[in-house]
Design brief:
Layout (H helix, E strand, L loop, with lengths): L24 E10 L2 E11 L4 E5 L6 H9 L6 E6 L2 E2 L5 H7 L1 E4 L11 H8 L7 H14 L1 H4 L11 H13 L5 E5 L7 H16 L3 E6 L2 H7 L2 E6 L2 E7 H5 L2 H8 L61
Parallel strand pairs: 3-8, 3-9, 6-7, 7-8
Antiparallel strand pairs: 1-2, 1-4, 4-5, 9-10
């Protein structure tokens, strides 16, 4: 018999030793991948109510795989996912949406032939029988996103990249999530639109929305986050407060130093003040001396990358 992928009848998960009691989302020793390829290995993280926690790392680090395993898009091979005290490992995505966990995947994934309003209404599909609640959620989202309100009858495929990202986030908010997963919201956007999207994310958190953000732009992600987890080739290599991670010179050198003759990934990055002494205690490196990061930051060899033109391949980033 297969695993029950509904939450009906589930028992509260056993508390993890030393874990705070107010943790809303917890991942323990999670392992996941595609076929024979392991993309995420022994990952653990915690998200408390009202926090913005960033999962950071280069392309191929396992960020998207982690979010997909949490949200039920793929089944974890090992470990567990605990939402609001209940073990939801392996639950279907639609079940998790009803439980309050909503995933905005990489690449926006709006339905281009449907209008803005039709896309938004799909976000409230699980509550579709409560027409008053859906109408109220729709007006809240359109009030928040003025640009979408002006285009509510426009086909989603005609929107700009930034507007489509706003639409994808708005569609997720229609489900009134307790935890919002955002996968690479800055992908493919101009610096101006990136700033707008992150300003929106900050406003949501200021209003109490809990967010788990996967982001390749390390400096930008840390500037809006409360805490961060850095992934390298599928494993957590550093974790700590966003302020501490952003001030860590080893991490900044690894992720922000550009190749010779090329501009930095984030043109507005501010160099940290010089520090002396031992690295902070938050640094947790797998098998490496404290205060060092792997210098091999190229993505591991995974399945062929669809962005390089190989159809049908998975991108485990």
């Amino acid at each position: 018999m297969g695993r029950d992928t509904t939450l009906a009848g589930t028992e509260p998960a056993a508390a993890t030793a030393g874990a705070p009691q107010d943790v809303l989302l917890e991942v323990e020793h999670l392992r996941a991948g595609y076929g024979r390829i392991t993309a995420a290995e022994d990952i653990g993280l915690q998200v408390r109510p009202g926090e913005l926690v960033a999962v950071l790392g280069p392309n191929g680090a396992g960020k998207s795989t982690l979010l997909r395993a949490i949200s039920g898009m793929i089944r974890p091979w090992a470990g567990r996912v605990v939402l609001a005290g209940r073990d939801v490992t392996g639950a279907r995505s639609d079940v998790l949406v009803r439980a309050g966990l909503v995933h905005v995947p990489e690449g926006r994934r709006v339905l281009p032939r449907l209008t803005v309003e039709e896309n938004l209404r799909l976000g409230a599909f699980s509550a579709r029988r409560d027409r008053a609640a859906v109408a109220a959620a729709l007006e809240e989202v359109l009030t928040r996103f003025g640009a979408l309100a002006d285009r509510r009858d426009q086909k989603a495929g005609t929107l700009s990249g930034g507007e489509q990202q706003m639409l994808a986030i708005g569609r997720a908010l229609m489900a009134r999530p307790s935890v919002l997963l955002l996968d690479e919201p800055s992908l493919g956007l101009s610096p101006r639109l990136v700033a707008e999207v992150f300003e929106l994310i900050q406003s949501l958190v200021a209003e109490g929305q809990t967010v788990l953000l996967a982001e390749q732009n390390v400096a930008q992600g840390l500037r809006v986050a409360d805490r961060g987890y850095v992934l390298t080739t599928g494993r957590v290599t550093a974790t700590g407060s966003a302020a501490d991670l952003l001030a860590d010179p080893a991490l900044l050198r690894s992720y922000l130093a550009p190749p010779a003759g090329r501009p930095p990934h984030l043109s507005t990055a501010q160099p940290p003040a010089e520090r002396t002494g031992e690295p902070p205690e938050y640094v947790k490196y797998e098998g490496r001396p404290a205060g060092t990061l792997s210098r091999n930051l190229d993505p591991p060899i995974h399945a062929p990358n669809p962005r390089r033109g190989t159809p049908g391949a998975e991108n485990p980033s």
